[in-house]
């Protein structure tokens, strides 16, 4: 009967003997972790802090030091976990929220960062933290709108609407107007890290030549997210086109885009697009097929100018149309090299120069051996009425030289218009 009681007494004695040693060991590991943190060895600091925690030392100092160590190691989810524990202590809530705001910025979640910084800025008691949070809010700017609307409208003139060959006495010239409207809305997450849906409408109307009027209606979904330092987006669009008010083509587009900052003033862009093209009328069946485009672009920015250069490869697998007089093939392989220079005259005015060269090679057949060289030069000016509203004008010259005479043509286009972002 007394044996169990003796065992209990023995265990209590052992517990009293070893508990001080365990606490001492946990505090030793914690202090060593602090030394490692101060020396910049954050990985070793985490090991010691975790060891102290496993030995029963769990207090706000340990949580804060673990959170700070994980932050230095760019392990933001682990850092967030411990800063949230620190925020439960009223006297340290402002400090924890400010650091949670910094983590949200690192994870490119600006809306969440605003919430944390706003909490500190509006109700914080530490004036130093209040000033820092207010400064961060100012640098973030206004919260992104869940709904974004873009509208542009132009009037213009083209001296060769139908790309009449050079050896024909006169091409068709005409004035026109065009309107483009797009609407995009966030449906999940943030604009820069979530799901969006959108729709757009484009309409081109010539004054006298209705046969060249065009319209395009598009619906799509987009997923934007951060991938290993790249801002990326996957976009799926369904488009329907009309020509001269008649059904023309329908296209399914799948696109991947990514960009990355190489430095404070330079960025690299990639884009790949696949298009599945179908005709809406039997007479356009020869245009059916697929088109792929891949592009790499480099941009450099400074306070005086913006420089852009890109290369694009286009591959077509389309139809073939042969008549009694001509043969037409639509499966061209194209290489495009383009450079654009923007001069920032002041806060209101920008001048742009845009030069591109495109080489097109078509499959050789018994009736066709065609290669095209197309040069396009454009100069334009923008006047920014405010941050979302601007006036634009552009003069563009196109010269296409082909091994097939009927594709030799020139075209000059001039337009002026307005754009507005809501």
Q: What does this molecule look like?
A:
- This protein has 422 residues and is of the alpha+beta class.
- The chain has seven helices and 16 strands.
- Residues 11-22 have low confidence and may be disordered.
Distance between the termini: 85 Å
Total strand segments: 16
Report the major sheet: 14 strands, antiparallel, barrel
Radius of gyration: 32 Å
Short description:
The chain is α+β, with helices and mostly antiparallel strands and 422 residues long. The protein has helices at residues 3-39, 42-54, 60-72, 76-86, 93-106, 110-123, 127-140, and strands at residues 147-158, 174-190, 193-206, 214-227, 230-243, 246-261, 266-279, 289-301, 305-317, 320-322, 327-329, 333-344, 349-361, 371-386, 389-402, 409-421.
Give the topology.
Layout (H helix, E strand, L loop, with lengths): L2 H37 L2 H13 L5 H13 L3 H11 L6 H14 L3 H14 L3 H14 L6 E12 L15 E17 L2 E14 L7 E14 L2 E14 L2 E16 L4 E14 L9 E13 L3 E13 L2 E3 L4 E3 L3 E12 L4 E13 L9 E16 L2 E14 L6 E13 L1
Antiparallel strand pairs: 1-2, 1-16, 2-3, 3-4, 4-5, 5-6, 6-7, 7-8, 8-9, 9-12, 10-11, 12-13, 13-14, 14-15, 15-16
């Amino acid at each position: 009967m007394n044996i169990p009681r003796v065992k209990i007494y023995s265990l209590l004695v052992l517990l009293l003997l070893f508990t001080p040693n365990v606490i001492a060991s946990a505090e030793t590991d914690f202090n060593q972790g602090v030394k490692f943190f101060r020396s910049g060895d954050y990985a070793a600091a985490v090991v010691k802090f975790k060891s102290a925690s496993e030995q029963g030392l769990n207090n706000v100092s340990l949580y804060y030091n673990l959170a700070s160590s994980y932050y230095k190691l760019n392990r933001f989810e682990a850092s967030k976990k411990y800063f949230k524990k620190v925020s439960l202590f009223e006297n340290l809530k402002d400090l924890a929220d400010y650091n949670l705001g910094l983590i949200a910025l690192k994870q490119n979640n600006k809306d969440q960062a605003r919430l944390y910084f706003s909490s500190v800025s509006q109700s914080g008691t530490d004036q130093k933290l209040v000033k820092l949070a207010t400064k961060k809010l100012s640098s973030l700017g206004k919260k992104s709108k869940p709904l974004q609307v873009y509208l542009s409208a132009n009037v213009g003139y083209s001296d060769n609407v139908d790309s009449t060959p050079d050896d024909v006495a006169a091409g068709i010239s005409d004035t026109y107007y065009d309107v483009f409207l797009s609407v995009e809305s966030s449906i999940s997450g943030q604009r820069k890290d979530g799901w969006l849906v959108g729709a757009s409408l484009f309409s081109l109307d010539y004054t006298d030549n209705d046969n060249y009027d065009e319209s395009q209606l598009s619906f799509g979904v987009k997923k934007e997210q951060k991938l290993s330092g790249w801002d990326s987006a996957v976009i799926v669009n369904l488009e329907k086109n009309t020509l001269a008010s008649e059904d023309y083509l329908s296209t399914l587009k799948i696109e991947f885009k990514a960009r990355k900052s190489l430095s404070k003033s330079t960025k690299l862009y990639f884009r790949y697009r696949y298009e599945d093209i179908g005709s809406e009328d039997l007479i356009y069946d020869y245009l059916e097929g697929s088109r792929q485009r891949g592009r790499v672009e480099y941009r450099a920015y400074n306070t005086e100018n913006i420089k852009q250069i890109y290369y694009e490869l286009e591959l077509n697998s389309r139809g073939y149309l042969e008549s009694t007089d001509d043969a037409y093939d639509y499966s061209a392989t194209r290489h495009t090299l383009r450079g654009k220079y923007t001069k920032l005259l002041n806060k209101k005015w920008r001048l742009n120069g845009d030069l591109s060269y495109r080489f097109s090679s078509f499959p050789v057949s018994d009736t066709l051996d065609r290669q095209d060289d197309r040069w396009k030069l454009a100069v334009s000016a923008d006047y920014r009425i405010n941050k979302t509203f601007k006036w634009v004008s552009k003069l563009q010259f196109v010269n296409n030289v082909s091994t097939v005479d009927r594709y030799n043509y020139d075209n000059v286009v001039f337009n002026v218009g307005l754009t507005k972002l809501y």
